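Notebook B, p. 112. Complex prediction, attempt 2.
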Amino acid sequence: MPSPSAHPFATWTAAVCTLAVFSYLYRDNALWRAVEHLYIGLSAGYGLGYGWHNFLEPIIVTDMIHRHQYGYALPLLFGLLVFARYVRGGDGPARLPIGLWVGYGAGYALTYLPRTLWLQVSGSMLPPDRLSNVLVLATLVGGLCYFLFTVGQRGPIRRMATFGRYAIMLALGASFGGAVLYRYTIFLGRMAFLLKDWLHL
Amino acid sequence: MQKAAVGLGTAAAIFVLATHLLGLGGSGLAAQGDRAVIATYAGAALLGLCNLGGIHLRRVAQRRRGWAYSLLLLGGLAGYGAVVLAQNPQGPGAEWVFLHVLSPLYATMYGLVAFFITSAAYRAFRARTPEALILLLTAVVVMVGETPLGDQWRVLGGFAGWLLHIPATGAYRAIQIGATLGALATGLRVVLGMERAHLG
Amino acid sequence: MGSRGWARAAAVLRAFGRLDRRLVYLAALLCASAAVLWPPPLPVRPRPDTLAAYRLAQALRPGNAVFIWIDYGFGAQEELDPMLRAVLLQLMRRDAVICIASRSIEGGQIAETVMRRAAAGHPAYLEGYGVRWIDLGYRPAPDVALRAATVNLPAAYNGVDQAGLPLARFPLTARLRALTPEFFRLAYVFDLGDGYAAMMTYVSQVTGLPMIVGAISMEAPVIQPFVATGQIAATIPGIRGAAEYETLLGAPGPATALDRGSALVAVFILLLLALGNAGAAANPERQEG
């Protein structure tokens, strides 16, 4: 975000960018398309420079060239295999790093999620001495029944699933209320910039 | 080669699991593995950039519709990329564009959704079924109760807090438990070599 | 009201229903302008969630280290920047050592900007980069980097900071060797909520180091189950939480202004919902698109 005390040129640049995006609300137009493409280009440019300074340079220049730690050459080159897809017949080798990443991610999920899951389940088993504890458990069981597709939803399970559906609607309603506030906060922030920092109203 | 990729995935998953189960999760071996994987990502980090550049270069070369926008995109990419490369992400030029062009552009794009929400609230959000009515009423209570108006109308503010802390907690826990079980099942399928969709 | 009165009201509501969407946008623009220029002067009273977060940070002793994980980009800046600013102000008052890392590529620069602006009244921090605070920036595979950080923090970030400068040159690096309770006292995750990934990663992988989540309003209900089980020590919910934090600090700022403006917005949306539903009830045969 521009600082309220930024140079007028900087404030004007940010204001023009803001208005160009808002112009889309009237209809799709050339100015909107221009800033849309400019944004993508600039983001990619930032990623390029950032990637060099923060991922590649420390490994290639510092670790490999200065410290002679050539061990990192292997994973670096392995990662570069994804570019093999640009070469005829290179689709196979390009899949190797993807296989590694997905496998590593799966390993992470299998390693760390069970504990989180257990804490969530055990945290729901509260003594039924308070209405709130009973309600948390009831909405949890109802919600789980609603997502139960492996057995037919009949009898008590169906009633619980119906209750669960209402509970999930309630939860999504709470998130929707939050979403309205969140999106409007962003909008108010942009308006505050235009009206106060730019127009000095 | 697909079999090799599946095998590599299985081996990677077993490595993470085994180092954890053997109590080596906080050890040098696990950290070396993590650093090696980060290095492989670093190697591939520019793939998206090459794809993007390739697509728009072709568009400009073939003078396809909207090629001028592609030229602008490529100019931004090359120009700003060069600036960040030459300085660093916090160099004066790099930071100026970051703060006064990139940030307002994207924040405003996100802010546009407020208009669409407004329009939807007026035109589409109808309480036609009991489910829609519950969703609508909860949204209204939370939306109003979570502003300073909730402090003025204490009952409303208290009710919004109760909704968030009690029934919504149970319902979201059900969604999270479902999602976690799904993630675990997918992870297991990857380890067993049954999941291959990501390999094309 | 007689039958003619009802018919007239229904006709007005039907006419409202046919309004061009751009007129609705214009109404939103006017509402937002009023909310910014004349926010209702409503008091902001801190609630238990925010109070818990504030008290955890108040318990810090001078020199205690705090880890801040940024998981938001430009899209959540308007809501989370004021919250981050308020938290940083408190941490600087507590004389804490601050270590920032990011889960999004732009998060490092965003946090750095907020930190430098917040440090304007704290010369020890303004001049104390590498001594009082440090910004490690973003690394690819940030979740893997987080686990690696629990073993060796500088190595997990390739030995360089956000600007690509070697960490070895900063005295702070020698003190903050790993993301463990041995070196840190408290952690924050500022979460945009793309499936609450950052919060989930943290609660799954880092143990023993209490974490406070700064969440956008939309995500506040989603993280409640984790607060209830104690996996999250406390939460600062949305712009209202940020405003409450500013009140606790005795320094009303951008969050307070935005929070007060949101009261006007809530009434505006409520009015639209009521009008829209009344219009639909008055004109039941019309198919909504």
